Amino acid sequence: MRLLIVTQAIDRHDPVLGFFHRWVEEFAKHCDHVHVIAQLEGVHLLAGKITVHSLGKEKQVSTLGQIFRFWKLIWTLRDKYDVVFVHMIPWWMVLGGPMWLLLRKPRYLWYEHRAATLKLLKAIWFSTKVFSVSEQGMPIKTKKSVVVGHGIDTEKFSPDPARLDRHHIVTVGRITKSKRLDLIIAAFRQLPEVYRLTIVGRPVTPQDSGYLRHIQHVIDGGLNHRVSIRTIVHDDLPPLLRSAAAFVHASQTGLDKAILEALACGCTVVTCSDNVPDDAPGVEQCSEEELGLTLRKVLESDMRDPQASHGYVGNRHGLQRLVGLLTKEMKF
Q1: Taking a C-beta distance cutoff of 8 angstroms, is the pair 305, 199 a contact?
Q2: Hey, what domains does the chain have and what are their CATH numbers?
Q3: What is the pLDDT of residues 187-232, one digit of tens each?
Q4: What is the pTM of this model?
Q5: In whole angstroms, what is the distance from residue 89 CA to residue 96 CA?
Q6: In angstroms, how far apart are the furthest CA atoms of the chain?
Q7: Separation of alpha carbons 26 and 70, rounded Å
Q8: What 3-state DSSP class applies to 65?
Q9: What percent of the chain has pLDDT over 70?
Q10: Are the CB atoms for 151 and 318 separated by under 8 Å?
């Protein structure tokens, strides 16, 4: 099988999308060749059976310019790929769908979000199948939906007890209101002075930037010596998670990939979300009101079982498992 992947970015240093570099490497193990069309091409080590084509966002090419280059690429490469896989952005499925239908290319969309948009509805119409992590991740009911779980690189995200700092707490994700960082900080205030919280993430939209300013103002009210906000490259995330005694989570947006990465590194996850599986070893669920109390209980007791949580992630959400499942679902 020769695969065409359409994605936002190929950049292993990207703090949000850096993980996709490993996805492409894993796909290449199952394919004769992989062509990747990325809006932005950054730092990567992809070669051999993998060819990356940039739409030029890193060179400030306009949106219209990217669209015309996209159309040109999917046409000129038409004899070099059998199957199409669009990652996360329905718009590219809508733009490429008519041509791919004409060329009789099977079309697969990956989507994991709660936003049910007109673009998504159109993209589903053009798609052969739609993959998502969970049922909640596909907000439009369709017979084309296939729930496949996450793809966590459990070789990269693995425990290292020697790095553990029992006074260190971490949360990871986009800086946005739905992540409920206010609630996390309020829970953290209930802990003794010896504990530290690292918030890893960045804003994406102007609204997110406004929320970040609000959070920074909250931290400045007596917590700036104990709470830090960082943006790090994806390759630096595993060492940070290995050092954390707990990962705190309050988002209601679905099963966050960051939770599974934390579990794979041996962190105990303390969450008040309804979307985290309660059978996962290393997960402590509680109400919003009990978040601080539960976090303290976890930190003051030895509740970690790193190998059990790592094994759970590998069996249910491992990258090798996921890509194997996806390639079996892709017909040509």
Answers
A1: no
A2: 2-153+318-329 (3.40.50.2000), 161-315 (3.40.50.2000)
A3: 999 999 999 999 999 998 999 999 999 999 999 988 989 999 999 9
A4: 0.89
A5: 12
A6: 64
A7: 24
A8: helix
A9: 99
A10: yes
